[in-house]
From TrEMBL:
This is Aminopeptidase N. Residues 819-839 are annotated as: Disordered. One of its GO terms (molecular function) is metalloaminopeptidase activity. SUPFAM superfamilies: Leukotriene A4 hydrolase N-terminal domain, Metalloproteases ('zincins'), catalytic domain. It comes from the Bacteria.
Length: 839
């Protein structure tokens, strides 16, 4: 594999100052063999300094290249040097490009269900150059014309409307867009079409998934139409990329979705093969809305460089939740955001790798590293706080002006801030510096100071917060007791202490009630006691979600023992009607038991038994029943719990109304395999029932999870030595390898991780290397010796990306060790013993 040079910000700035790219005319030949495809690209561009030199990227086998009629070449890694440029230039490049199995570039997949072949392009972040020669940076936009030669029985979908002549597909010239937004997908797709407001809509999936897409097509079209109507109104502009909008569900996709103009690609996990919960449908709708909002914010108006990638994703994250909440049948989207999504941002902002929302991205590889919870969840929270600060009307007036002024160009965040200041009449410079150019998360804590109550802000950087503070009184007794909102104070926090207008202290003081800011919440002692006692008494689901998030964060910080958190969940989870919140709480409780409790086995057992009882008592066929059965399987540890799972799998003992269908069966198989309760023959038998792409991945995970030396050795060898595995196969194997309760079996792989990761990092693509660095870390071994042995991987001699991934995993491990140590100290104090007496 030729060495790919990493484009730096300085190189991109210099090239953008020199060139304007007019157009790409790309021809792809997909009729050859299974390894490579043909690519011819004709690039028209101008140069501001005739006689100057530059380079174009191509990560492929160069056949011929001509610049203004004269030969150029050879390639220097992935760069083709272009010298003696004219004012107007024409570059023609012919290449043989390799298909990918890692989800980067043009990915090729063979469907085990019917042998059909499917291709799709993922050009983000800098992988368009694996498909055709291009100036692969976001601020050199151009129009794209595409022609594709493909087998006769294939359908080809790309960024524009197409015309077919035999086996050749020709696509209309696109509007100006960045190279990272180019896509093409080809294969015998199962396609459904519709139309709305003059826009042709398409849904596409593999033929073997046709029945599942058909079952959900009405809902998907409805959500798409509702999102289009809402977002066209919000952005003040019609959908900007022609009159077609295709959504493709593609195999082995590395992300949830990608916002290619007119041809959005989604992971196949959103084509539901089995019974699913309404929450999972809501999440799919939010992804549809998220990607659609990029058509305006990210595609129509695009960041100049990856420094402002956060703005693309943060705004789309905000619009995904807002659109679904306002325009579709799904409700309580902000409850889901508070309960689960923001936890991703809080974790990222407390890691050693934390960074300002507005990042300092020096090169392409650094941009990939910052594709994290700060750029998504925290950024969306910060924009929501900005919307609260200036008002929603002014916020969207500024957004509409920004989109109109900068259509089909590139910008920085300063351009958006200018429009928001004009629309709101406010100077937002200080706000921007405090929120976007600093890192770390603030803590808001209610504190009693004599006769008054203050809201304390604890942070290295004091940020402005416009929030609500809820005053809740406990009314009634016994089962009828309820926490009733007395008043919600509208508070503007600016410094370390903000007095609150509280005459009589309530039973619960809830900072950030309404969840309008990004901050950790800590309760005063009385409020904490109220929350821990029984959150079922609090009627507002968003207020409950905020309380749960605060308890979980305190548990992660070691301030609240894991036992107390799990007990609170066991008491209060029955009061939650949203399966998303229930699933989040039970997952967090299991994590607390496994990682944060000194001896979490009994807590896991309590969770499993509580889930069993709830599953058998829940309404038959309900979302809550399915959620509880999934949680039971994940928490099961003792033989009695395993026998319950076996009864579910065999059908011998199933709660009334529960459908033990394909995906639930695989969940049970994976959990039983990890407990050592299934043989290879049993996994093979399950695969025979479901010999599909998804079934094969589940089988890989199941075998990797088995607690035997042979299975672990085979899995490790495959992960580290088998270069033929796809990205999805690697993730499936890695996802099953590390299991709680297999410590003795897994401990030898700590040394192997340390010894082998540097070589893997150098040999694999960035996407695969990141997966291996994170998922092969010994995360289930909560042991100080693991910290010691992995410290060497943070040596500056190693690449920055490797060091970052390892540092993040080690920080999570240190957090678990700290939580266990503090919980142990608390337990000793309560027992009235000193550490010496208990040693």
């Amino acid at each position: 594999m030729q060495r790919v040079k990493n484009l730096t910000r300085d190189e991109a700035r210099a090239r953008a100052a020199l060139l304007d790219v007019t157009s790409y005319d790309v021809a792809l030949d997909l009729t050859g063999g299974a390894e490579r495809f043909g690519s011819v690209s004709v690039v028209a561009f101008s140069c501001r300094e005739p006689g100057a030199s530059t380079f174009v990227e191509l990560d492929a086998q160069l056949l011929t290249a001509e610049l203004n009629g004269r030969p150029v070449g050879p390639l220097d890694g992935n760069r083709l040097q272009l010298t003696d440029l004219q004012a107007d230039n024409l570059l023609t490049v012919s290449a043989r490009c390799a298909y990918s199995r890692t989800g980067e570039g043009l990915h090729r997949f063979s469907d085990p269900a019917d042998g059909a072949t499917y291709l799709y392009a993922q050009s983000f972040l800098d992988d368009a150059q694996r498909i055709f020669a291009c100036f692969d940076q976001p601020d050199l936009k151009a129009t794209f014309s595409l022609s594709v030669d493909a087998p006769q029985d294939w359908t080809v979908v790309a960024n524009g409307r197409c015309t077919r002549r035999g086996g050749r597909w020709e696509f209309a010239t696109t509007e100006r867009m960045s190279t990272y937004l180019f896509t093409v997908a080809a294969g015998p797709w199962h396609s459904l079409t519709g139309s709305h407001d003059g826009i042709e809509l398409g849904l596409h999936c593999r033929r073997s998934l046709a029945e599942h897409l058909d079952a959900d097509a009405a809902e998907l079209f409805e959500v798409t139409e509702q999102c289009l109507d809402f977002q066209q109104e919000r952005f003040g502009r019609r959908y900007p990329f022609g009159d077609t909008y295709d959504q493709l569900f593609v195999p082995e996709f590395n992300a949830g979705a990608m916002e290619n103009p007119g041809a959005v690609t989604f992971s196949e996990m959103f084509v539901f093969r089995s019974r699913t919960t309404d929450d999972e449908r809501r999440k799919r709708a939010m992804v549809v809305a998220h990607e659609m909002s990029h058509m305006w914010f990210g595609d129509l108006v695009t960041m100049r460089w990856w420094d402002d990638l956060w703005l693309n994703e943060s705004f789309a994250e905000l619009m995904g939740f807002l659109t679904v909440d306002r325009a579709t049948r799904f409700r309580d989207t902000w409850v889901d955001f508070s309960a689960s999504r923001k936890a991703w941002g809080y974790r990222a902002d407390q890691l050693p790798s934390t960074h300002p929302v507005q990042g300092d991205v020096v090169d392409n590889r650094s941009a990939l590293l910052n594709f994290d919870g700060i750029s998504y969840a925290k950024g969306a929270s910060v924009l929501r706080q900005l919307m609260a600060t200036v008002g929603e009307e002014a916020f969207f007036a500024g957004v509409r002006s920004y989109v109109a002024r900068h259509a089909f160009t590139n910008t920085t965040f300063a351009d958006l801030l200018t429009e928001l200041e004009r629309a709101s009449g406010r100077d937002l410079g200080e706000w921007s510096r405090a929120w976007l150019q600093t890192s770390g998360v603030s803590t808001l804590r209610t504190v009693g100071e004599g006769d008054r109550v203050v809201l304390a802000q604890e942070s290295d950087v004091l940020r402005p917060h416009r929030i609500g503070v809820g005053l809740y009184d406990l009314v009634g007794t016994g089962p009828e007791a309820a926490l009733v909102l007395r008043e919600r104070l509208d508070v503007e926090v600016a410094g370390p202490r903000t007095p609150l207008a509280v005459d009589v202290r309530p039973d619960l003081l809830l900072p950030n009630d309404g969840d309008l800011t990004f901050a950790k919440v800590r309760f005063d002692p009385s409020s904490l006691a109220t929350v821990l006692a029984d959150l079922r008494r609090l009627g507002d689901p968003l207020a409950r979600a905020l309380c749960w998030a605060a308890l979980w964060d305190a548990c992660r910080d070691g301030e609240l023992p894991a036992t107390a958190f799990v007990r609170a969940v066991l008491t209060g989870v029955d009061g939650e009607g949203d399966p998303a919140v229930v699933a989040t709480l039970l997952t967090q409780a299991r994590t607390a038991a496994v990682l944060y409790a000194p001896d979490g086995g009994p807590l896991r057992d309590e969770l499993a038994e509580a889930s069993r009882l709830a599953a058998w008592s829940a309404p038959g066929g309900s979302d809550l029943q399915l959620t509880r059965v999934r949680a039971l399987a994940a928490a099961a540890r003792l033989p009695a719990a395993a026998e319950v799972l076996e009864g579910l799998l065999s059908g011998a003992d199933v709660p009334p109304g529960l459908s033990v269908d394909t995906e639930l069966r695989w969940h049970l198989v994976e959990c039983l395999a990890a407990l050592g309760r299934l043989t290879h023959d049993a996994v093979d038998a399950e695969l025979a029932r479901d010999d599909t792409a998804a079934g094969r991945l589940h089988a890989l995970t199941s075998r990797a999870a088995m607690p035997t030396e042979g299975d672990k050795a085979r899995t490790w060898t495959a992960l580290t030595s088998d270069g033929a595995l796809s990205n999805a196969e690697l993730a499936a194997l890695a996802g099953g390898f590390w299991q709680p309760g297999q410590d003795a079996l897994l401990r030898p792989y700590v040394a192997r991780y340390v010894a082998e990761l540097p070589g893997l990092w150098e040999a694999r693509t960035p996407q695969v290397a990141g997966v291996l660095a994170q998922q092969l870390f010994p995360s289930t071994l909560v042991d100080a010796r693991v910290l010691e042995r992995t410290a060497v991987l943070e040596d500056p001699l190693h690449p920055a990306g490797l060091r970052r991934y390892v540092a993040e995993q080690r920080a999570d491990l240190q957090r678990a060790l700290t939580a266990r140590e503090r919980a142990g100290a608390t337990a000793r104090e309560r027992a009235g013993a000193t550490p010496r007496e208990t040693s």
